Amino acid sequence: MTPARKSAPAAKSVKKAPAAKKPAPAKKVPRSMPYEQGAWAFAFTRAPGERRYWLIKSEPDVFSFSDLVAAPKRTTCWDSVRNSSARNFLRDGMKRGDLCFYYHSNADPSAIVGICEVVREGYPDPTACDPTHDYFDPKSDPEHPTWFMVDVKAVRPLARAVSLTEIKAEPALAEMALVRTGRLSVVPILEPEWDAVIAMSEAPAP
DNA sequence: GCCAACGTTGGC
DNA sequence: GCCAACGTTGGC
Q1: Spatial distance from the CA of A48 to the C1' of B12 (Å)
Q2: Residue of A77, A113, A101, A86 lying closest to A183 (CA atoms)
Q3: pLDDT tens digits along A80-126
Q4: A106 closest-nt by C1' vs CA
Q5: Is residue A107 within 8 Å of A161, Cβ to Cβ?
Q6: How many degrees, rounded to 5, is the angle at CA A115 between CA A110 and CA A120?
Q7: Which nucleotides of C are covered by protein (CB under 7 A)?
Q8: Closest-approach nucleotide to residue A31, Cα vs C1'
Q9: Partner of A21 for a Cys bridge, out of A8, A17, A103, A164, CB 3.0 to 4.6 A?
Q10: CB of A58 under 7 A from strand B?
C-alpha cells in the first residue's frame, strides 16, 4: 500500500553512557557538524543487542493505526518522509526489532495509540523518484537516494490512548523529543519514557 | 557564510 | 484559521 503520506514531509559506535541517561537538551549545532555528533547523537548508538525505541507520527485521516492493523501482514512501508532529521533516524537509527509508538497527529485528541515494530531497516523510498507522487523530489538521484523508509508492523494498540495533553503534564516526560521538538515526524524515545507511557496507558484515564 | 524570505508542521 | 517553531533556499 502507498497512502498519500504517512506523515507530512518536514512529513526518523559504541556508547559510553548508560542507555537510560538523558540526552543533552537539544541545542543549535554547527551546520558542518555531522548529525552523529549533534544533539541526536544518542539515537544512533546502542549496546550490542540493545533494543531502541521510537515514535512515528501519522495523521489518522491519512493512515491510522487501525489502517496498519488492517494492512496485509499488519505491515507497511513508512514512506513519504521528507525531513532530513527524520530521514537520518529512518536510514541509520532504526534497527529490526526496535519498537515504535504510533502517534496520531492532527487528531482529536492527538495521542499515542499503539505499538509497532521495525521489521525492515532503512531502504530507499521509491515515492521520491515517482513524478506522479505528491512527494516526488526531483533533486533526489535514484543512484544516490536522498529519502529512506523502513517497514513497520503493528504489534498492539495501547490499552488506552495517551494524549499529548497528558504527556505534557507528566514530569517524567518533560524531555521527550515529541514535546521538545514538536514537528519531527520520527523521533527517538528513551527507555524510561517508553516505560512511563506504557504505565500511563495501563492506568485509568486522568 | 550570513540571514531574510519563504514553506511546513501541527497544536491550539 | 492562526501562528510558533522550525527547516530550506538563495541572494549577496
Answers
A1: 42
A2: A86
A3: 999 999 999 999 999 999 999 999 999 999 999 999 999 999 999 99
A4: B10
A5: no
A6: 120
A7: 5-9
A8: B1
A9: A17
A10: no
The DSSP output letter for A105 is: -
The answer to whether domain A51-201 has CATH 3.40.50.1980 is no
Burial class (CB in 10 A: 0-12, 13-18, 19+), A171: exposed
Q: What does the DSSP assignment read for A13-33?
A: ----S-TTSPPPPP----TTS
Please tell me whether any atom of strand B lies within 7 Å of the Cβ of A61: no
CA angle A166, A168, A169 (to 5 degrees): 65
Q: Measure CA A158 to chain center.
A: 16
Which tens digit of pLDDT belongs to each residue from A19-48?
333 333 333 444 445 566 677 888 999 999
Answer whether the bond into residue A188 is a cis peptide, omega within 30°: no
